[in-house]
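Hey, I'm writing a tutorial for new members on how sequence and structure tokens pair up, and I'd like a real worked example in the thread rather than a made-up one. If someone can provide the structure for the chain below, I'll link this post from the tutorial.
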Amino acid sequence: MSLGQKIQCQEGTLPKPTIWAEPGSVIPTGSSVTLWCQGNTEAQQYCLYTEDLCTWCERQKRLEPGDRAKFFINGSYAEKYSCTYLSPTGWSEHSDPLKLVVTGVYSKPILSALPSPVVTSGENVTLQCGSGQGFDRFILTKEEEHRLLWTLDSQRHIRGQSEALFSVGPVTPGHRWRFRCYGCYRNSSQMCSHPSDTQELLVSGSCPPKRDELKGCEGCRNAHPEDLPTLSTPAPYLGPEAHWWAAGET
């Protein structure tokens, strides 16, 4: 329940809470997102801060029963959020910052697997995200892991082409390896493009998901890479691999 007011910044020495976004920190422009802040069972109130971490905060009571509070954000986003909680012994430290990325502002880039989306179990694969719009950086997301982001500065090429090469793996059976990427500009890094088409990686010798569902695994356990469906045509190699780091780090 919202207390409908803002209070001055409070920060203490209790262990910091955890903050996350639902359905994820990568959100289409104009959509709503719920931010959760989780402290402990003694927490009485929670405060949500924007990137200016020590000016004002929006206050919420703890949900009963539980150890967390939620905040609704609809249509107007800050780039980074942080939260604290108040217990009978005082205020906590700030949580680690949570960065929101708003997508759908620019045309989508192209995502390809090099040299092929068919991968031998245990190997790494390079995912190439590229565009002719001159993006300064690219973001890669893995399906069902929207909090896990990789960000790379782009490599520029002639005629305004730019790209980033992400090393992914080791790729193993038993998981869905589905990715999308987004392009952004440095002067507005929170606002990014529409998502690329999904690039799925297939592990050689295992079943593609749809074939597994429809026909079972007989006949595809021993398939050769050339027998498995290719989900996209790899783009040509455009440059050296870029250095990558987790989103939010500098």
